[in-house]
Amino acid sequence: MAQYWRHGCSPRILFVLLIVQWIANLFVSHSFVWLLRKLTPDQMIVLTGATGGLGSQVLKYLLTLVPPSDITVSLHNPAGLDPSVASTGITVRKGDYAVPTSLDAAFAGADKLLLVSYPSVAHELRVKHHVNAIEAAKRAGVKHVYYTSLAFGYGTKPESCAAVMQAHLDTEAYLRKSGLKYTIIREGLYNESYPLYFGFFDPAKDTDVYVPGDGPIAWASRTDLGEGTARLLALPPSDTRFDNTTLLLSGPASNLLTLAQLSSLISTILGREITLHIISRDEYVKKHLDESGKIARLTEDYLGKWATTFEAMGRGETGIVDPTLQELLGRPLKTMEESLREALNASRDKHLDLYATAQY
């Protein structure tokens, strides 16, 4: 303040300047962050599926947005949580979708619940587990349930011809009628899950890819989706923009790619021609059933159901671009090319692990 005194500032002006400087220092200090947290009511956020591909990313980013003491994870196997994550100060509880009483204890005291969809293609089992979680949330007095759905259905419409989407649609309908405040998040199709849609592509050996249809997909990276979901969870209760809504978190227009375009991109990255073949649904089932030895658990039932995703793609269900994810993140989204280069460079000599890339 000496420079102001030398320039003839009056004591009154000098006092005002001192106050302004003190306030400025307060805003950049740890004390202000502590004070802000004290003035903002704590919200307990319970995460399910926090060791999975999406859930682990949500937890990673949520830890940068709220205090660890506000986070509880509900896991069917708490021992599976990375010790470095468990040591951050979050609360870890045992909760199993198949055991409703365990969910009562896991969700106790929660203000918000992230219900990560159960990873299965078994429709009835999946819906039953989701209903168990929703009913437990009601009993526990949870104020707001966030559900991770999937980006089929023309954006946010309650319809789809994809078999994998049917359990999501049933869960969405049940949640809307539950009386709970909800946010249904239709998570974009992962960049990282491209092998599922690209004929179970094995970069270590495949040169020909066989699928029963094609259509545009607004691909989004799992890391971006995890961060976007975390930012939704961290919003204060006063921000009601997403209350009782269904929203789509998609990739940007630059990530809107068909499988044919994906084939060209992969060919460029690998430096060898990858040829896409469009075949009938029956041929698709037979071909991949004959090759089921290279990928465990590819059954006729699974392949028949999975073939319906290509019909949905062809109808345009997965080709909707929505700005919400980029708006939540406030930065450009990861490109499909960037994700492909990372995945293909890491797996040139490795065979496909179907379940490491799965998204249901």
TrEMBL record:
The keyword Transferase does not apply. InterPro entries: NAD(P)-bd_dom, NAD(P)-bd_dom_sf, NmrA-type_oxidoreductase. The chain crosses the membrane at residues 12-36. Keywords: Membrane, Transmembrane, Transmembrane helix. Residues 49-190 form the NAD(P)-binding domain. It comes from the Eukaryota. This is NAD(P)-binding protein. It comes from Neolentinus lepideus HHB14362 ss-1.
